[in-house]
Amino acid sequence: MLINAPYRPQKLYHRLLKNVTVYNLYYYFLVIAAISTSSCARVGAPTGGEKDSIPPTLTSMYPPLETTNFNSEEITLTFDELIQARDIKKELIITPPIEDYESRVNKRSIRIIINEPLLDSTTYTFNFRESIKDITEGNSADQVVAAFSTGDKIDSCKVKGKATMLMTGEPVNDAVVALYAAADTLDIFNSRPMYLTKTTEEGEYEIKYIKEGNYRLYAYIDSNGNLKDESDKEPYGFKSEILKLGKQAPSSDSIINEITADLEIFGVDARPLEILGSRPNGKYYEIRFNKYVTDYQLTYDTSAYQGKNMSDSIDTDIQLYKPAVIYHNFQEDHRNTRFYNTFKIDSIQTLITVTDSLNQQATDTFYIKFEETRRKPESLNHTVQLGNTNDNFNVQAAIEFNKPIAGLNTDSLLLKYDTLLNIPLVPEKDYIWNDRKDQLRLAKIINKDSLKKNVEHRLRQIDSVKEESLKAYQNTLLDSIQNLENTEERERVIETFLISQNYPKVSEIMDTLRNEPDQNQRTNILNAIADTLTVGIKIALKNKEITLNKGFQLYAGKGAFISVELDSSGRIKQEFPYLDPKSLGVIKGSVETNYKSFTIQLIDEKNSVIAETNNRQSYVFNNVSPGTYRIRVLIDANENGKWDYGNILKYEEPEPVYYYEAQVELRANWEVDDQNFSF
């Protein structure tokens, strides 16, 4: 009955105490201790004490490191404490790759069972990275690497370096660094690598146990974990030169067993460029591409339409066909070209040649043909983007439209300064259109001396108007004084007049007059004053120093822009805020270089370009807000007027990018003037 009863240690404890004697005290203490121990022996994490921060330590490995002539199907690693390996498929890097394997953890050891044949005379490495952790706190074992050879020697070549983001210089963590045989057509886009590793938090990498040979080196951010690069969404980097490891020639004594190669990662879509198709879309005709396109060229077959009036353009000077009559522009982030129905013919054969960021090209022929539709055209919209300049008097901006502009009222487009002045903008000098007439770029440098004179002249004009207005007001008062007979009213108006004339001691005069007890005498004094009053005091014109401390405004009146579909723009107002030098700072320095074409950029902590200047060995960035900045230089090595990303398909690396070694800390009203470096 006692055997089947529920186990209640508290009741048993009290029963034992009830029967305790001096003679059996020792016996009962033993029983109570046993009960207490069994009650407390529960599975769980211990409480209190210091946190375990010591990672597992490798105590043995089979096969031993750098074993040769390996012919087993298993490797085993044993540690000094209980371990787990939950992320081993993600963390374990095997080179050359082994796809079919299993992992089994048994307390302090892990076994890797290989289920596919190994290559002959090949050195394999198993880099466990952070896959092996202790049971209690998840501390990762440090740099656990197994290496063996199926031949009679261990390959000993090594490649190491650092991977950074090209446009920020920041280290890249967990990027795949891959080696491919240079003689193969395999690369990061179509196959898994021969050798690989992943970068550390500092961006560093090392690939060991590489066989002698020639290799191509890549790095990429493998977001989906398939050990291939999807270039439309996974940034990559590469070295243009082939890495030659081992003996350089049969007759040479030169042997290179180790190469240091840094990699710069960037994002450019390297997929083959494709024209997906063309079709009418509502009131438009469109051509679609599979990726971002930088440019396109059109050629029209006009042989069937010579001499015909094909244009509905608002430009009355165009009567016969010209290519400019056919309006078109990019849509959908440069993945679509749209044509507008501005000509009368049914269709026209057109050849398009498109180019992407890697200068890949694709061509196709189609017929521009519009369909009848009741769909309304899209409304004319615009955006304004300010240029990268911190100069109050260097006004830069771009107005972008969603459809081409066929007409502009130039008188309605101007700059305003503090509502005082309208500054006209001259076509082709102060602003230009792009080829497709959907972007207007403004660049206007304001002459400060000229602006100052114009502001002063305008203020004098305003003061003159005020003076004439005041004279008219005073004459009106003077006339009313002569016609007033009521003494109190005449006193009030005379006082007002004297004040408007800035006459001294007006209060004293009026107090004396009002204190005169004799009414006749007061009237005589008032008549005498009224007879002698004249308008003779001028207001002071503004002659103080003019301070140009106001911002500009880009202004376009309603209807200033007319689209190819004859709808017009609304009123456009874009402010250029005045940058007060007292609350800002200056960053300047110099560069020493043999490059002829380059751009020096000031970038903030978000890697946004704050200001830039071209081809100046002494640079100055004025009116910079307090903060932390970096100096970046883009090199136009081929001197084509722009910085290029290169072409991975042709093994052409991006043009160089340099950074000033330190961050620049700037405070208000400071000038940092020692940012000097060479490249």
Overall pLDDT confidence: 85
Give a quick account of the main beta sheet: strands, pairing sense, barrel closure: 6 strands, antiparallel
Q: Determine the fraction of residues in helical runs and give it as a percent range.
A: 10-25%
What is the beta-strand fraction?
Answer: 25-35%
The low-confidence runs, each spanning 5 or more residues with pLDDT under 50, are 1-46, 310-324
Contiguous helical run count: 7
Structural class of the helix and strand makeup? Answer: alpha+beta
Principal-axis shape: elongated
Radius of gyration: 42 Å
Measure the end-to-end span: 93 Å
Q: How many beta-strand segments?
A: 45
Summarize the helices and strands and which ones pair or pack.
Elements: H1 9-18, H2 25-40, E1 58-62, E2 74-79, E3 83-84, H3 88-91, E4 93-95, E5 101-106, E6 109-114, E7 123-127, E8 133-134, E9 145-149, E10 157-165, E11 176-181, E12 195-198, E13 204-210, E14 213-220, E15 236-238, E16 243-247, E17 255-256, E18 258-260, E19 263-265, E20 275-281, E21 284-289, E22 295-300, E23 328-331, E24 336-340, E25 347-355, E26 361-369, E27 382-386, E28 394-401, E29 405-408, E30 413-417, E31 421-424, E32 431-433, E33 439-445, H4 448-483, H5 487-500, H6 506-514, H7 519-532, E34 552-556, E35 561-563, E36 572-576, E37 585-592, E38 598-603, E39 609-614, E40 618-624, E41 627-635, E42 657-659, E43 664-666, E44 671-672, E45 677-678
Parallel strand pairs: 10-18, 10-19, 37-44, 37-45
Antiparallel strand pairs: 1-2, 2-6, 3-8, 4-7, 5-6, 7-9, 10-13, 11-12, 11-14, 14-15, 14-16, 16-17, 20-21, 21-24, 22-25, 23-24, 25-26, 27-28, 28-33, 29-35, 30-31, 30-34, 32-33, 34-36, 37-40, 38-39, 38-41, 41-42, 41-43
Helix pairs in contact: 1-2, 4-5, 5-6, 5-7
